[in-house]
Amino acid sequence: MNRAGMLLDTGPLIALLSKEDTGHKLAAELFSECLPPFRCCEAVVAEACFLMRKVHSAGPAEVIGLGRRGVYEISLSIEDHWTNIEALLKKYADRHPISLADACLIRCAEIYQEPRILTLDSDFGIYRWGRNKKFQINPRFSQ
User: Fold this and answer.
1) pLDDT tens, residue order, the chain (143 aa)
2) Of 96, 89, 17, which Cα lies nearest the Cα of 51?
3) How many other CB atoms are there within 10 angstroms of residue 121's CB atom?
4) Domains of the chain, first to last
5) Strands 128-129 and 133-134: what pairing?
6) pTM
């Protein structure tokens, strides 16, 4: 069982809540192997709400409900990290397109010294946090 505090990307939230999603079974398995709360940011929650609205009208409320129940917590306020997030967006602008949510999660990794991330996105294999640290994507081990 993975300890609490793992970073949480948008994809697993969508896959967990949408039984029709091709990643639903994997997301349910990954969530079951991790202790909540996960760490994320408002950009991840906003992205998930937007995408879940396309799945069904109650989708955004389901995303927020997971937060209310303590599955995830908002661990970063963009307002406190403008400079760092702007630098990350610029760093990856030419090499690899990056979303605001991804930049915020990279910043969360730096703040909390947390390399573990629950994601269905291969981009985190490219992104680095700190000076050049790799993410542990969907770790299936206890630490």
Assistant:
1) 889 999 999 999 999 999 999 999 999 999 999 999 999 999 999 999 999 999 999 999 999 999 999 999 999 999 999 999 999 999 999 877 899 999 999 999 999 999 999 999 899 999 999 989 999 998 864 33
2) 17
3) 18
4) 7-130 (3.40.50.1010)
5) antiparallel
6) 0.93
